[in-house]
User: Fold these one by one.
Assistant:
Number 1:
Amino acid sequence: MTATTPVWKLHDQFVVTESVEGSDVPVSYRLVPTFDALYAPVGLRVPDVAGPVPLVVLAYGNGGGGLDWVQDAVQNRGWVMERILERGWACAWIDVRTEVDLGYERGGPLTRDWRSGGELFNRGALDHEDWIATIQALRELPEIDEDRVALVGISHGGEMILKLAGEYDGVAVAVAAEPASHEFLAIRRDRSTTVDQLETTDVDSVLAHVDRDVAAERIAGIDLPILVMGRDDDPLQGVFRATHQLLDEAGRDVQWTTWDHPLHGYVAPLRGDDGEYEVDDVQRAAIDQMLAYVAARLA
């Protein structure tokens, strides 16, 4: 990106504040201008403590859900937010544009330039670039400590962390929980192997299909402590392990952990039909470990 790239700010006039069920910390919904000046939704919660405070930004899945998805995540995946708020940190659920199949693979780096008085891209912006725009905007808020921003990405959100980590340096620490990193790791299939036939539970089978040269080039740009969290019986456990192994082999600051739990996205517990969160001891321990990792790097 060029030196003329603007840093967008949050529009205060679009802030809508609501209460959160079972909590005394409200949420403010905001719209963040992305690189192409369209808008991505944010559900931000800030504890009532002296600031500026650290910020944890959470994302889950493939994007495209919009403000409705963020509102649902705040109200029904908010248990992890409460644990973050207890530490005196701000937190936000975000959503981004819909994932473009192989858009990262085929599009190459984003070039932003000016022509005839307006900005010009060499391609359309991608979902992980919306996340970068969101971080840039949130770091500008006076209540946020711009040097202590952490990310938690779940599933495709974990892969987005890897993509943005090689392009952006405004983050202190990240957690890639069950990262579906197929595209980032350049996992190839020969013509006789379909997606369903590719063995992804076993790390060696996954590594056999990784384009090592491409993956190494992408990983080389990462200068960010990352905790990679697997799930013991997940169909993509081999991808999760390969993500950690390749980062580790490249000398990145990375740690691995894995937990035995039936829920994909176990670090973001769900509210049950009775209005209470369904959280077990495994989730509590996993989230405690995740936040301890983040805290040690935000200190």
Number 2:
Amino acid sequence: MSPAMNKEDIYKVWAPADGVWSPWVKPVLFACMPETPPARFSGTFSGETSSWLPPVESKVALVVDL
């Protein structure tokens, strides 16, 4: 099992140096995250439920408010 990611690691994944949207991502969004990450998601995701998503090649950003 790999070690848990901290908020700095998550920021680097969310806003990679060469990412298209990285110039607009602010680290303050990750500052309020707890030092201990939450439990991992144990559910499954079926590709069948994502038929409404645009293709990856379309370079579309989706903002999902959960």
